């Protein structure tokens, strides 16, 4: 355990988050996502795991991970097939986490299922969660942390 670090953030996840740079994508995936096969195609090349709900994992990650303010798609969710505008409870919960972490409303864009798979393959890494609800899949693009003001 470390002071000030969410205990869900294990050593492998912390390593990946620290190694990522501005513009790199992180995928948070539910238990039904093809996480292992997709993770093998990412920059990291292996699957990471945090066995908790999508909202708990998002809260832990966003406690140390800045979202990219230079793009409109820094926070994204997988759309429901045939119902792209519907927001299931798992996505509403993660939306609240994103808004709280950023201190303002930060809408997630919807990404069609197969387009989301392609985005995930180009990501830095995939973190599979213990989330069993459908469509608990999210992409977060890393932003920057400004220098301290003198």
Structure description:
The chain has 150 residues and is α/β, with parallel strands linked by helices. It is 31% helix and 16% strand. It has 5 helices and 6 strands. Strands 2-5-1-6-3-4 form a 6-stranded mixed sheet. Helix 4 links the parallel strand 3 (75-78) and strand 4 (109-111). The radius of gyration is 14 Å and the shape is globular. The protein starts with 10 loop residues before the first helix and ends in a 9-residue tail after the last strand. The model has no long low-confidence stretch (mean pLDDT 96).
Given as residue ranges, the uncertain stretches (5+ residues, pLDDT < 50) are none
The chain-level mean pLDDT equals 96
Please tell me the CATH architecture by its name.
3-Layer(aba) Sandwich
What can be said about the biggest beta sheet? 6 strands, mixed
Radius of gyration: 14 Å
CATH class: Alpha Beta
Structural class: alpha/beta
Distance between the termini: 32 Å
Give the CATH topology: RbsD-like fold
Domain tally:
1
Give the full name of the CATH homologous superfamily. RbsD-like domain
> Total helix count?
5
What's the β-strand tally? 6
């Amino acid at each position: 355990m470390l002071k000030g670090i969410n205990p869900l953030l294990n050593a492998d996840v912390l390593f990946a988050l620290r190694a990522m740079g501005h513009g790199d994508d992180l995928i948070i995936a539910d238990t039904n996502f093809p996480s292992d096969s997709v993770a093998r195609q990412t920059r990291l090349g292996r699957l990471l795991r945090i066995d908790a709900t999508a909202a708990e994992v998002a809260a832990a990650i966003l406690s140390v991970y800045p979202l990219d303010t230079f793009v409109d798609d820094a926070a994204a969710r997988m759309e429901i097939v045939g119902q792209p505008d519907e927001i299931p409870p798992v996505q509403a919960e993660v939306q609240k986490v994103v808004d709280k972490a950023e201190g303002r409303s930060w809408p997630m864009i919807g990404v069609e299922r197969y387009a989301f798979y392609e985005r995930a393959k180009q990501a830095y890494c995939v973190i599979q969660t213990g989330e069993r609800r459908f469509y608990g899949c999210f992409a977060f693009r890393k932003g920057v942390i400004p220098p301290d003001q003198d």
